[in-house]
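Ticket #4471: structure output looks truncated?

Reporter: J.K.
Steps to reproduce: submitted the chain below (98 residues) through the standard prediction queue, then opened the result file.
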Amino acid sequence: MAKSWFIGWAEAQRAEARARYRELIAAAYLEAEEETRGAMLNARGVRGGIDTVSLFSGPEARAYAYASPELIEHWARRPRVTFAEYCAQTIQYGMVES
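Returned output as attached by the reporter:
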């Protein structure tokens, strides 16, 4: 059975939102890297070989468990945004293209 036009449209919208979210995460990462001078993992994160990029889009509890004090301070000023929050913001502020 073929997909309805609506399902195709919704999937395309979600893919576009994901692409824009990846751009947001990349910019947030670069800003945090500069502000923290690269000190984004705590000792536990370093020992665990945690990928610092994953802290910007993964679960909040995990992000804070491995984040350095410098990164936590950065997030206090520039909060990390989950994909769900990003989608809600784009809908609330009318940034979704139709």
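Triage note (M.O.): checked the attachment and the full token line is present. The chain has five helices and no strands.
Status: closed, working as intended.
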